[in-house]
Amino acid sequence: MSGTAVSHTGENGSPEITPFGRKLAGAIAARGPLCAGIDPHPGLLDAWGLPRNVHGMENFALKAADALASEVAVIKPQSAFFEAFGAAGIAVLERVVRHARSAGALVLLDVKRGDIGSTMTAYARAYLGGESALDADAITVSPYLGFDSLDPALHADGKGVFVLARTSNPEASRLQNALLDNGKTIAQSIVDQAAGRNAGAGPLGDVGVVVGATIPPGELDLGELNGPILAPGFGAQGATVADLRALFGRDLTGVLVASSRDLLRHGPGAAELRDEARRIVSTLAG
């Protein structure tokens, strides 16, 4: 499954762009719903016996990408851990993105960007524009400057976004569950606006939402989303397969289950990382 956006030539002779939602649905069907995070966290560098410097981070990130990118549907590098090393760290991130895509994985770059006007346009060019070395298939975005402020990313051809809606961190609840004048929570309003952008798309729209796997079932109505859900919180944060099914439905349609540190702790051996990724996919399919 290639990460490239161009699929074939249309009737007018111009390249036809495959929507992100369609690419993601195909990747999940072929490889399962696991989204493998690559988070060069200092504690993981320690666990792998690597130094807490850019060389240790590079060793870690490229080993993880090499082991996992041919196995899973989506690779999700956490940009902050690379940015912490400045330009040298960004150069490593560029290599991870290239390597993951060349191995057939889609790349979801976890950057959580959200701004207005020309700044958001620049972010969209950096991560979704097709010309940057950081060009990814999708990014995470924050809607808290207004959902419509995300338009430059929402309109990137063949690309996807995952909008923060109801996250798994405990301190998010008070804000995201605050009620609006229409009686809906902020989180539900974000889901509804994403659903509006996905109307009529198939098999999935390009606008996903981030919903933590540890939130209470029934808190959000996701029935009209028609788009993918990124679900962090599985494994180390406590969510089980039963929790995922209670929250998102029995067949987990369109749910991309994120695992980062809980998966990566099985390294540094490539075989052990691949075995754990396969075990998780098998568990999710059971």
Description:
The protein has helices spanning 20-31, 42-47, 54-68, 79-83, 86-102, 117-128, 151-154, 173-176, 186-198, 241-248, 261-264, 270-285; strands at residues 6-9, 15-17, 34-38, 74-77, 106-113, 138-141, 160-166, 207-211, 229-231, 255-259. The protein contains twelve helices and ten strands. It has a single domain (21-285), classed as TIM Barrel. Residues 1-9 have low confidence and may be disordered. The strands form two sheets. Strands 3-4-5-6-7-8-9-10 form an eight-stranded parallel β-barrel, surrounded by six helices. Strands 1-2 form a two-stranded antiparallel sheet. The two termini are 23 Å apart. By secondary structure, the chain is an alpha/beta fold. The radius of gyration is 18 Å and the shape is globular. α3 crosses α12. The chain is 41% helix and 17% strand. It is an enzyme of class 4 (lyase). This is Orotidine 5'-phosphate decarboxylase. Pathway: Pyrimidine metabolism; UMP biosynthesis via de novo pathway; UMP from orotate: step 2/2. Keywords: Decarboxylase, Lyase, Pyrimidine biosynthesis. It comes from Amycolatopsis pigmentata.
